[in-house]
Amino acid sequence: MALLFAGRRRPATHQAAAPTSRGRWLHRTLVGWGFAGPATALVVGLSIFPAVWAFLISQQKWNGISPAKPIGWLNYELMAQDPDLLAAVQHTVVFTLLFVPASIFLGMLVAVALNRPIKLVGFYRTCIFVPFVASAAATGILASFVFNPQYGAANSVLRTLGLPQQQFLESQAQALMVICLIALWGQVGFTVVVYLAALQDIPKDVVEAARMDGANRWQVFRNVTLPALGPVTVFTSIWQTITALQLFDLVFTTTRGGPLGATQTIVYYVYTQAFKLTKFGYGSAVAYGLFAATLVITVGMIVYSRRSKIEAF
Amino acid sequence: MRRLPFSPWHLLLMPLALLFALPLVQMVLTAFMPDGDINRFPPRFLPSRLQLDGFIGLFTESSALRWLLNTVIVAAIAVVSQLILCSMAGYGFARLKFFGKQAGFLVILATIMIPTQLLMIPTYVMFSRLGLIDTLAAAFVPWLASAFGIFLMRQFFLSLPAELEDAARIDGCSTFGVFWRVVLPLAKPALATLTVFTLLGSWNDLIWPLVAISDESLYTIQLGLANFQGTRHTQWSLLMAGNVVATMPLIIAFVVAQRQFVATMTFSGLKG
């Protein structure tokens, strides 16, 4: 033990005599881990440990009860030939490509509007933010009601406007789009608030100087505001992409993956494989695949933002 | 205050605000609506009369009250535990000098990248071996501490000036005394942020209780609602009453503490 300690510590010349310094060192370590230990142990025990274990499980054929059978990388090889997984990946990608740009565009637009000194701003902000607090379960049930083909409000509105009735969540072609709309309803409040904070951080004198130099409102937005929002945009893009890739709750509480698998997402697929069909090994492999893809996309976005000279991280 | 001229931005904001708020208004109205109003064609937005059948049905035909109590227990344990454990760990990593501190903090940071979906399967196996599956503990143990919480508190403590703590220590305060009596009272904004996030996360969590709990008397309110949808998908006033019960505590908390809430979102959003 003493050797280990000796290697780690710088020479303790400024400290008191040797015996008390050893005692004080031990005391400090105990106090330090007394503070940091319980939370660290919980976090490690509930994330690092299961993450490593999940990798081991992903190399097995295991239903959780009978003995696990080691099969190497077979689960990962099976993933490439699984048409249901490919469909789930496709749905998740489509959802992400719809959801992320829309939530960023809407968030920025609404934040710019809310940043104007107009009446009712507090009311507007509250309205737009409140859905963010509602749970996915409640949102899903409410959406099933609003988009109910027979007596839902959405079709009532279409009828009033003289437009044809829709099947919404019960249509294979529309269900994913409708889920995307519902997700936007719940999530835009978050991007709005983040952008609003970033807008309020832009120094007023820079905007005024640009106005003095004869720039019109659009030019100020294009050349002053938009570049200043770059770092926040990188942050929200990454955040919303991760959220979108992990879509599960809303699907579970609206369509349960249907109709005919049209809204099956990757995490929904992991859930059914692992906990409905008890394929723990295969489920873990798919989850690892998603983790790896998320990591690559996140790193890619950070590298891209660095290249574009946006100081986000 | 001078009268502001009408701004064209209202033309964007008013419809959007209504689009965001009206579904929630309809949720509340439907909860108080007689079934006849809901099932008629074309459907009504305003109820012909207000009645409590939805709520009565919710509380007599299901264990919603029990689920609500379970959710309150889970959320309360999660919040209290995170406030204590994460602020202590955050303080340790920010201010104390001890062996293994850097390594420990790096490990914590690394876990932020790990998505919860990856952890579900081994956590389920681990919990079932510990006998935690189908207990309320299964729902709250994953919320007892979080890497995000430790990180948030550490960043906050680093931003505090150290002089106050030095003064207290010279006056003979123990390390824990300094933390408890001097530092923690200054950390209210960060503690409020942590409370909001833990409350939102633990109250609204669906996928983990879905996996870990199958005993109906141990359901959280979200799990009960999600399950309703399969079994009572035409009893809309009951479903909406359930929605009201499940969302109103957080919505009221949000409206009351709106300023803190928004500050929280931006604090964590930009600096987290």
Features:
heterodimer; A: 313 residues; mainly alpha; two-stranded antiparallel ribbon; 14 helices; 73% helix; disordered N terminus; B: 272 residues; 15 helices
Q: How much helical structure, as a percent, in the residues of chain A? A: over 70%
Summed over residues and divided by their number, the pLDDT of chain A gives a mean of 87
Strand residues, percent of chain B:
under 5%
Summarize the biggest pleated sheet of chain A. 2 strands, antiparallel
Return the string of H and E elements of chain B: HHHHHHHHHHHHHHH
Give the terminus-to-terminus CA distance of chain A: 39 Å
Rg of chain A, Å, rounded: 26 Å
Low-confidence segments of chain A? 1-17
Main sheet specs of chain B: none
- Beta strand count of chain B: 0
Derived from helix and strand composition plus strand pairing, the structural class of chain B reads mainly alpha
Number of helices of chain A: 14
Average residue pLDDT of chain B: 87
Name the overall outline of chain B: globular
Total number of strands of chain A = 2
The greatest inter-chain interface is formed by: A-B, 98 and 100 residues
User: Which percent range describes the beta-strand content of chain A?
Assistant: under 5%
* Low-confidence sequence ranges of chain B: none
Helix content of chain B: over 70%
Give Rg of chain B in angstroms: 23 Å
Distance between the termini of chain B: 37 Å
Structure, explained:
The complex is a heterodimer of chains A (313) and B (272). Chain A is mainly α and 313 residues long. Chain A is built from 14 helices and two strands; from the N terminus they run ααββαααααααααααα. Chain A has helices at residues 2-8, 18-58, 74-80, 83-114, 121-133, 136-146, 153-160, 175-201, 204-212, 217-228, 230-245, 249-254, 266-276, 280-307, and strands at residues 60-61, 69-70. Chain A has a two-stranded antiparallel ribbon. Chain A is globular. Residues 1-17 of chain A have low confidence and may be disordered. Chain B is an all-alpha fold. Chain B is built from 15 helices and no strands. In chain B, helix 9 (163-170) runs antiparallel to helix 10 (175-186). The longest helix of chain B is centred in the first third of the chain and has 32 residues, at 64-95. Chain B is globular. At the A-B interface, helix 2, helix 4, helix 5, helix 6 and helix 7 of A face helix 1, helix 4, helix 5, helix 6 and helix 8 of B.
